[in-house]
Amino acid sequence: MTDLLVTNGTVITQNADREVVDDGAVLILDDKIAAVGPAAKLETDYDADRVIDADGGAIIPGLVNAHTHVSDILLRGAFAADRGLHDWLYNVKRPACVAMVPEEHAVAAALYCTEAVRAGVTTFVESDTEVIWDDRDAIEAKFDAYARSGIRSIYGAGFADSPPDEAFELLLADVQVRDPDIAHPPADYFTMETDTALTRVESLIREFHGNADGRQSVWPSPIVLASTTAEGFRGAYRIAEEYDLMTTAHVAEAEAQERGAPLSNISYLRNVGYLGERALLGHCVQIDAADVRLLAKTNTKVAHNFFANMRLATGFAPVVSMLENGVVVGLGTDNANLNDAINPLADARAASAAHKGFHRDPGVVPAQTAFDMVTIDAARAIGREDDLGSIEVGKQADIAIVDMDRPHLTPSPNPVFALVTAAQGDEVETVICAGEVVMEDREVLTLGDTDELMTEATAAADDLVERVGIE
User: Fold this and answer.
1) Spatial separation of the C-alpha atoms in residues 316 and 262, rounded to whole Å
2) pLDDT tens-digit map of 185-236
3) Separation between Cα atoms, residue 435 and residue 276, nearest integer Å
4) How far is 402 from 418, CA to CA, in rounded Å?
5) What's this model's pTM, rounded to 2 decimal places?
6) What is the distance between the alpha carbons of residues 56 and 37, in angstroms, rounded to a whole number?
7) Distance CA 152, CA 143 (A)
8) What gap in Å lies between CA 36 and CA 7, rounded to an integer?
9) Which residues, in sequence order, are CB contacts of 104 under 8 Å at separation 6+?
């Protein structure tokens, strides 16, 4: 049995009482938290094999990113910033992701994980909307990088089983005419028979779920309503129940994706049997009060992708109403080439401030609530509150140490308030996942030399953008 003592810091437990232990310590045995308490007591009671000195920093739960996309990190900064959702999706993201080779997926995954670790993330949910099911090498290249990173990956295996209708094909033609020289994949490029899609998802679950010492997960992920049949949604939820997983989908992100009267997206998903405690819905921007009540009634979770939605000018989800009605909300950074950063603390700051400004009410989304959305509530949103999201005995030892000895964090009598309102995200010094140190003194220990990785990623990105013809 290997034990590790993280000591001499302020332990922000995120337990039910939101207890903060000044001059605290955390004892880790193998991959679990064994004790939490005053540093003096734990240092006296335990002779740990290894001691990490937090040096007065904040000891926080590893952050949980409830919704993100990985491979398009190579497109960061590669397109005009005036693109809306469909313009960006069908003229930039989708053509490029379809063109990527396994080696490019691998370097994108390594770059993504490096940045995530440096931001304190120990768990992320990837909603992969461009799965090339006939190219398992690409999927395995990503999974290999995730396994090597040492953190937890949840792979939402995206599928489409409903061919686009005439109205969508016309919309797509109007959108793609902006960039006629790009090799656009056809509208039905990802569409397959429902049984085929569900069989492939189950095969991926059986082969990869639980790998990397349990740090790797696979979920069924219907991409959007427009490309998924009722049978596809029901099948995804059935698989989630059968394998004790969750399922995730993109819902009501832009006005063009909303069904409208008389049946909203949320009502439709209720009717086809997709809402429930195993469903995590990304975005939920274009929804109303009745939809929010339905989410609460069915215990359906939401991933709030504030920053990326603002970049696309789609608006943002009615999170204040969701919280008031008891909907569980986790924060997601979404696409790395829309948000432009993988930084949950910075996103928590932005989201908290924006909702206050929008509602003209400084009391909405307080700092503690925003911090919950990247820790314990994010863990609830992904169905992992029993073992992630807080520093409590018996939970997985996923911990980050934040250097609070910075001018912009001084003074910080309330560390949670300081983390949400002032932290930039680059103050994370050490990250531990499942009891293993994956970053120390800002150096990621699991993915090779970071400078070399950045050089490789830059070269891969340049080649990809030129090859696809993105301007």
Assistant:
1) 22
2) 988 999 999 999 999 999 999 999 999 999 999 999 999 999 999 999 999 9
3) 32
4) 11
5) 0.97
6) 15
7) 11
8) 10
9) 71, 74, 460, 464
